[in-house]
């Protein structure tokens, strides 16, 4: 593929390394900005250098996922894996530049070492690509940028080795064998240093975890919360959710993915952000949420199945809600049958949903969802996304066992 002594493969590897370095840097920057417990725009583009945006759902899903960082129970948000990529791409940038400058004088042993380690980012990328497709259902553009960079690096690294295979034994001896373990150590140190520095500088978040207050009114009128007890429940939790709220869906998915939901004994309060039934709003944020909330209430022992159906079909139901109540009602009838739809239209269900809304009002719940309480303690909004495992480890460690 490449002629003997060609600089092209080293140039490809250098380009791939620099590209990976840029994407890893943006990903790490986005993660670190959230350590102030605020909500920020994130970079989500195939082109490095474009400004961050709030329209980055796939990248935010990846960032909030359990696969984005290590040691999430020890550090708020964990140690982002992009830090390891950042350090590794720094090493690969330097080594590919070394081979590029030497050209045909590049030692075979150096090229062989580079080929061996240069394919490791591609192997990791293939693993993360599979997780993105099978577990997250999204492909983050910044992540895809790293995958492409890893592929270019692997092509360049293997190409550099292939272009030196015909060199003589004397040429290969120019690099002592003892340098190879030194290179391995240098790669390990370069990869780990950014993560170590990050961990050492991460702010202590423990004092913030208990600052968001407690529930004021412990019981709803008629005790009509929905009881969703997990199969291995060890911790009571109170959740305020809207079935057409994308953030609620993402939160529910995190609880499932983190294997937390089965450890919770949940009392669910439906809080649709739809002015059709919610008098706390002057316009609907999620049109149709009132009807879908009634469907969840009518689910009875299958309430969780109805809720999870609403989350799974959320985009379709949101469009149906905007199209009008009849379209939404038809969708509910098609999936759950005439009996459930009659329950949705029953006056008693309207009263029951109204009790849920009054309960939210009595507790001065912010007009945003989801809201989570562990026992009586409210979990801060920011601690339900990046800081979820850390918060649970501090306040309810039994759910992580």
How large is the share of residues in beta strands? 5-15%
The Rg value, from CA coordinates, equals 26 Å
Unreliable segments of 5+ consecutive residues? 168-173
- Strand order within the widest beta sheet: 3-5-4-6-7
Order of helices and strands: HHEEHHHHHHEEHEHHHHHHEEH
Distance between the termini: 53 Å
- Rounded average pLDDT: 91
Number of helices: 16
Domain module count: 2
Helices, strands, pairings?
Layout: H1 8-33, H2 57-64, E1 69-70, E2 79-80, H3 82-102, H4 108-118, H5 120-136, H6 141-162, H7 169-172, H8 179-201, E3 226-229, E4 235-241, H9 246-257, E5 264-270, H10 289-297, H11 303-312, H12 314-323, H13 325-336, H14 338-345, H15 347-362, E6 371-374, E7 377-379, H16 388-395
Parallel strand pairs: 4-5
Antiparallel strand pairs: 1-2, 3-5, 4-6, 6-7
Helix pairs in contact: 1-3, 1-6, 3-4, 3-8, 4-6, 5-6, 10-11, 10-14, 10-15, 12-13, 13-14
Task: Explain how this protein is built.
This protein is α+β, with helices and mostly antiparallel strands and 401 residues long. It folds into 2 domains: 8-201, Up-down Bundle (de novo design (two linked rop proteins)), CATH 1.20.1440; 221-400, Glutaredoxin. Helices cover 54% and strands 7% of the residues. The chain contains 16 helices and 7 strands. The chain has helices at residues 8-33, 57-64, 82-102, 108-118, 120-136, 141-162, 169-172, 179-201, 246-257, 289-297, 303-312, 314-323, 325-336, 338-345, 347-362, 388-395; strands at 69-70, 79-80, 226-229, 235-241, 264-270, 371-374, 377-379. The strands form 2 sheets. A 5-stranded mixed sheet has the order 3-5-4-6-7. Strands 1-2 form a two-stranded antiparallel sheet. Helix 10 (289-297) packs across helix 14. The longest helix has 26 residues, at 8-33.
């Amino acid at each position: 593929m490449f002629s003997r002594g060609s600089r092209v493969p080293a140039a490809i590897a250098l380009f791939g390394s620099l590209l990976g370095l840029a994407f890893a840097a943006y990903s790490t920057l986005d993660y670190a900005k959230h350590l102030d417990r605020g909500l920020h725009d994130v970079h989500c583009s195939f082109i490095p250098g474009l400004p961050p945006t709030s329209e980055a759902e796939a990248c935010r899903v990846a960032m909030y996922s359990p696969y984005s960082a290590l040691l999430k129970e020890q550090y708020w948000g964990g140690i982002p894996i992009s830090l390891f990529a950042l350090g590794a791409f720094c090493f690969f940038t330097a080594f590919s530049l070394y081979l590029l400058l030497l050209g045909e004088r590049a030692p075979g042993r150096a090229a062989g070492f580079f080929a061996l380690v240069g394919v490791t980012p591609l192997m990791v990328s293939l693993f993360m690509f599979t997780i993105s497709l099978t577990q997250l259902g999204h492909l983050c553009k910044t992540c895809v940028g790293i995958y492409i960079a890893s592929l270019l690096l692997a092509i360049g690294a293997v190409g550099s080795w292939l272009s030196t295979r015909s060199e003589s034994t004397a040429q290969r001896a120019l690099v002592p064998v003892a340098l190879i373990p030194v290179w391995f150590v240098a790669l390990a140190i370069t990869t780990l240093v950014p993560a170590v520095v990050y961990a050492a500088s991460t702010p202590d978040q423990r004092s913030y975890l208990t600052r968001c207050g407690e529930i004021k009114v412990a019981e709803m009128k008629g005790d009509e919360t929905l009881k969703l007890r997990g199969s291995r429940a060890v911790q009571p939790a109170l959740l305020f959710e809207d079935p057409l709220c994308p953030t609620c869906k993402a939160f529910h998915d995190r609880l499932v993915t983190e294997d937390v939901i089965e450890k919770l004994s949940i009392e669910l309060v439906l809080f649709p952000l739809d002015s059709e039934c919610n008098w706390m709003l002057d316009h609907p944020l999620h049109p149709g949420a009132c009807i879908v909330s009634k469907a969840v209430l009518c689910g009875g022992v299958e309430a969780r199945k109805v809720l999870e159906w609403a989350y799974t079909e959320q985009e379709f139901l949101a469009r149906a809600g905007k199209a009008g109540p009849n379209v939404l009602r038809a969708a509910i009838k098609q999936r759950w049958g005439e009996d459930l739809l009659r329950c949705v239209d029953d006056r008693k269900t309207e009263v029951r949903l109204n009790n849920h809304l009054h309960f939210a009002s009595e507790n001065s719940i912010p007009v945003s969802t989801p809201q989570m309480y562990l026992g009586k303690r409210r979990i801060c909004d920011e601690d339900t996304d990046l800081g979820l495992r850390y918060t649970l480890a501090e306040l309810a460690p039994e759910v992580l066992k």
